Amino acid sequence: MEEHMALLDVKNVKKIYTTRFGGNQVEALRDVNFSVESGEYVAIMGESGSGKTTLLNILAALDKPTGGKIYLKGNDIGKITEKEMAAFRRQNLGFVFQDFNLLDTFSIKDNIFLPLVLSGRKYEEMEKKLEPIAKRLEIEEILGKFPYEVSGGQKQRTAVARALITKPQLVLADEPTGALDSRASDELLTLFSDINADGQTILMVTHSVKAASTAKRVLFIKDGEVFHQLYRGNLSGDQMYQKISDTLTVLIAGGAGNE
Amino acid sequence: MSKKIYTRLALTNIKNNRKTYVPYILTSVLTVVMLFIMHGLARNDSVGEGKIAQILMMSCVVILIFAAIFLFYTNSFLIKRRKKEIGIYNILGMGKGHIAKMLVFETLIIAGISIGLGLLLGMLFSKLMWLLLIRLINYNVRMEYMVYGETIIGTIVYFLIIFTMTLIYNLMQIKLSNPAELLRGGVQGEREPKTKLFLTAVGVLLMGAGYYVAVTVESPLAAIQLFFVAVIMVVLGTYALFTAGSIAVLKLLRKNKKFYYQSKHFIAVSGMLYRMKQNAVGLANICILSTMVLVLVSTSVSMYLGTEDMLHVRYPKEISVRIYGTTKESEDKIEAIISEVAEKYHVEAAEQTRTHYAAGTMLLSDSNMKLAPDGNYGEQDVREIYMIPQEDYNQMTGENINLKEEEVIFYTTNEKKYGWKEVQIEDKSYHIVKELGDMWTEPKDDDRIVEGIFLVFADTEQIEEWIQYICDHSDMKEEWVQNICRMRYETGFDMKGEEEACALAEEELVQRIQNEVQEAEIESREMEKREFYGLYGGLLFIGIYLGAMFLMATVLIIYYKQISEGYDDRERYQIMQKVGMGRREVKKSIRSQVLLVFFLPLAVSVLHVAVAFTVVKKLLAILYLTNESLFFICTVGTIVVFAVFYAVVYGITAREYYRIVK
C-alpha cells in the first residue's frame, strides 16, 4: 500500500446484474477506479442508467460488487461481516437521499437521533450533539414537528443533520436536490459547501449540473467506467458550470458517435 | 364497449387482486353456507318445536346481522386498497361511467360465485348439520330432511341485497373522489394520533366498573340483571382503551426520555403508536369477537357435558310427585300406584322421601322474619321459607324429637350456619332447638337463586296458621294464593332394578299418576332429560356454529391487517436499513411489534374470559350447572384450542406479511 492513504479508494469495481432466470447479464459497472481524499467534495455525474446509483449503493455497502475492492481509510469494506455492517455504516457513513427517507413515525428530532439511538448513546449526549447542528442547519424551530408538517427543504436539512450527527468519515449524497425547488436547492448546496469548508468529506451523485458545479471535483461516469474528471481549482461557480456543461455535451455526442 | 370487455376486465381485476379477493369470496361463500344451513334448520319441522326452533331462529338473525356488517367491512377495506388502481384507470381514459360498469360486473361475478357456490355447499352440508343437530339434541325422530324453497330464495335475495349495498358504497366512493385523490387513496392520514385523555379515562372507568361488577356480584339473581350491564361496559371500555388508552400509554412511554431513547424501545414505541392508530378498532373487534367465541363455546360445551349433572341437581330424585292441597286420600292413592307398578316390573322405589310442607316468601333481617312481603323480589333479603311438621322430620331422620309449641328446628340452604338461638316470625318468637348441617329436602348450596330456610314445627296446625297469615296478607294473584294456602306433599324416589324395567316402570308410573291422581304433579328425570338434551344440545350446536363463524371473521380481520401492515411497513423497513440498522435488527423489531399487535387482543380477551368466569359460573348455577371444575376445564380447553388456532393463523398470515415486506 502507498504511503499516503486516501480516505476512500475504489479499485476495479465491477457489478454485473443477472436477470432473475439467469439468462441475461447486465453490466452496470465495468471497471471503476477513483479515490477521494479527506476533506474533498466530489460529485459524480452521469446519465440515468450510467451506473451512478449502483456505484453509490456499493459505496454505501448496501450492495456488493461483483469484483474489485473498496477501501475506507485503508479498511476493505468487502471484509466486513454482515453483522458488523450496520454498525460500520452508522459509524463511518452519513447518507442524504433524494427522497429524504425520513420516518413518518418520528418527529424531526427523533429522526435525527435515529443513528445515535441505534448506537446506544445516552439522551443527554445526543442533546448536546444536536444543539450546534440544529443551529447550523436552522432547524431548531421545527425539531418537535413531524416530517409531514415541514417543507421539502426542511426535510432535506433534517436528513443532512441526521447524516452529520454521527460525525461520519464520509457523507454520501444521492441526488440530494432532486426533490427540491430551486431556492431550497441553492440553500442546500451552499450548506454542502459550508460543511465541506469545515472539513467534512462529501461524495455526491447527481445529474444536476448546478449541483455538480458546487463540488471541488467532478467525475463523469459512462458505460460503467469513470470517463473523465474535472477539477474546480480556482474557477468560479459559473465557470465550473460551463465547463461541466461542455463536458456533458462531449459525453453525449461521443456516446452517440460510438453507436 | 361491449359486455365481453367488461367481463374480462372484471375478471382480470379480481385475479390481480387475488391476495385480497380470494379470502373475501371465501368468506362470502361461507357466510352464505352458514345462513342457508341455519335457516334451513330453523324452518325444518323435525326440529321445529318450541325452544330449539326459537334458538335457531335467533341465531339466524345473528347471522343475518353479522353477514351484513362483516361483508360491508371487508368490502370497504378492499375498495380502499384499490383506489390507486381505479385512479389509474380513470387517468388512462376510462370515464367514471365505465369504471362504475366495471365495478358492477365485478360485483356480479363475486356475488354469482359466492351465492352459487354457497348454495351448492349449503345443500351438501345441510343434511350433515341436521344429522349432527339431531344427534346432539338426542332426538329420535325418523323424519327426512328437506330444503325448503323459502330458504333458497331467502338466501339469494338477502345476499343480493348485501352485495348491491356494497356496490352502491363503492360507486359512491368513486363518484365522490377525483383521480388525484384516488391515486393517493392508499396513503392517507399518517398524522400523529392525538392523546384522548378523556376517552382513556372513560375506558378505564367502564372496564374497571364492568370487571368490578363481574367479580363482586354475589347472588345469581343479581348476576342475571347485571351481566348485560357488565358486558356492555366491558365492550365499550375495550374499544375506548384500545383506541385511546393504548395511545395514551405509548405517549407516556415516549415522554420518559431515558426509556424511550434506547434502541429497542425507540423504534417499537413510535412504531406501535402509528400501528395502534391504524389498527385499534380492528384489534378491538378481534378482541371482542374472540371473547364471544370463547365464552360461547366454553359455556355451551360445559352445559352440554354437564347436562347429567344439571339433571341431578335439578331433580335430585329420579321421580318426584307433588300435590298442592294434599289429602290423605291422594297420598294413599299415589303410594298404591307406586307399589303396584314397582311390583309389576320387579323394581324398587328406593330412598323414598315423604314430606308435608308449606312454602312462601319472606323478608329476613337478622333473625326477624317478615312473612308475605309485597312481592319485591329484587331485594337482597328475600328468602324462601319452608315449614315442615316434626312428624315428617322424625320419620325421615329416624329421630324421636318432641318439640314444644314455641320451638323449631332450623336449616338454611346457605353453606354457612347462622347459629341463632331464636327466630322471630312476625311478632312471635321461637326458640331454635338445633340448626341442621344438612337435610333430606335439599343440599346446602350458595348458588341457589334465593336462600331457602327450612323450619320444623311441633305440629301441622301452627304451620297452617302461618300460611293463613301469608294468604291474608298477600297481594298476589288469586290462583297463586290458592296454591300457597294449603299444605303440600312431596314424595321422591329413585328406581332400582334392571335398566329397561326401570324405564318402563317410570313411563307407566308417570302415565298412571297423571291419569288417576289429577291433583298431583309428577316430574321424571328421564322425561326431563330429553328436554334438557334438546335444549343444551341445541345450544351447543349454536355455540359451535356461531363460534366457527366468529372465528372465521377473526381470521379474516387478522389476514387483512397483516396485508395492509405489510404494505405500510415496507418503506419504513427500507429506510431503516439505509440509515444504519442491520437487516436482522429490522426484522426482529418488526416481528416483536407485529407479535405484540396480534397477540394483544388475544391476551385481553383471555383476561375478559377469566373475569367473566365468575359471573357466567353464577348464571350457569341458575341453570343448575354447579360443576365448577367442569366449567373450568371447558373454559381452559376452549382457550387453549382457540389460542393454538389463532397462532396457526398468525403464522400463516405472517408469512404473507414478510413476503410483502421483502
Write a structural description:
The complex is a heterodimer of chains A (259) and B (662). With 259 residues, chain A is an alpha/beta fold. Chain A has helices spanning 52-59, 82-92, 108-118, 123-137, 152-164, 182-197, 209-212, 237-258; strands spanning 8-18, 25-36, 41-45, 67-72, 75-76, 93-96, 170-174, 201-206, 217-222, 225-231. A six-stranded mixed β-sheet of chain A has the order 6-7-8-3-9-10, with helices on both faces. In chain A, strands 2-1-4-5 form a four-stranded antiparallel β-sheet, covered by helices on one side. In chain A, a hairpin with a 2-residue loop joins strand 4 and strand 5 (75-76). In chain A, helix 4 (123-137) packs across helix 5 (152-164). The longest helix of chain A is centred in the last third of the chain and has 22 residues, at 237-258. Chain A is globular, with a radius of gyration of 19 Å. The model of chain A has no long low-confidence stretch (mean pLDDT 86). Chain B is of the alpha+beta class and 662 residues long. Among the domains of chain B are: 1-188, no CATH class; 348-496, no CATH class. Chain B has 19 helices and ten strands. Chain B has helices spanning 3-16, 18-43, 50-91, 96-136, 149-175, 179-184, 197-216, 220-255, 257-260, 263-305, 307-314, 328-344, 390-397, 460-473, 478-484, 499-516, 525-579, 583-622, 628-661, and strands spanning 319-324, 348-365, 368-371, 382-389, 407-412, 422-425, 428-435, 452-457, 488-496, 520-524. In chain B, strands 2-3-6-7-5-8-4 form a seven-stranded mixed barrel. In chain B, strand 6 (422-425) and strand 7 form a beta hairpin. The mean pLDDT of chain B is 83. The A-B interface holds A 60, 62, 82-83, 85-87, 89-90, 93, 95, 97, 101-106, 110, 113-115, 117-120, 122-123, 126, 146, 148, 162 and B 190-192, 257-258, 261-263, 266, 270-271, 273-274, 572, 575-585.
